[in-house]
Design a protein that fits this description.
Structural class: alpha+beta
Radius of gyration: 19 Å
Number of strands: 5
Helix content: 40-55%
Strand order of the largest sheet: 1-2-3
């Protein structure tokens, strides 16, 4: 049975019971949707599934709730959940097995790390280009990065 915690601006799905091969597995995974967040709802779902994989709440082979079920449980449009699931599949975090549902890929954690590294590299490149456009030399940019890396290590 699913349990919900609702506030004015958010909905939290506390747990989902997944039936698989006539056995019941309890997957504890909180999905919190903040309706007042500037982050689109589908991206909130994607981020939380990724976090679930990274922190071990979701393991390789775990089934995600059906699109219809999750949409109904969270009071969302099915297209919103479908968009999140499609993005997770494109990022190689999940695999759609047709009638068997969507499950977490074996390499999901590695793929998330690769996606995060790729996105960070793009953001860093954009930031460095911005610094250069504002007249900073390569040496100035390197010095600034070294200072920030030092702070990160502390």
């Amino acid at each position: 049975m699913n349990k919900f915690l609702c506030t004015k601006n958010s909905i939290v799905l506390i747990c989902t019971i997944v039936k698989q091969y006539k056995k019941i597995y309890l997957i504890y995974m909180e999905i919190e949707i903040n309706m007042s967040s500037p982050t689109p709802v589908y991206e909130q779902i994607v981020q939380q599934v990724q976090q679930g994989v990274q922190n071990g709440a979701l393991n390789a082979g775990d089934n995600l709730p059906a699109i219809r079920q999750l949409a109904n449980d969270l009071g969302l449009n099915q297209n919103t959940v479908a968009k999140a699931y499609k993005l997770l599949e494109q990022q190689h975090v999940t695999v759609n097995r047709g009638r068997k549902g969507t499950c977490v890929r074996d390499s999901a954690a590695q793929n998330i790390m690769q996606n995060n590294s790729h996105n960070a590299a793009i953001q860093l490149q954009t930031l460095i280009q911005s610094f250069r456009l504002h007249g900073m030399s390569a040496e100035d940019v390197c010095a600034l990065l070294e200072i920030q890396i030092t702070h990160l290590k502390e």
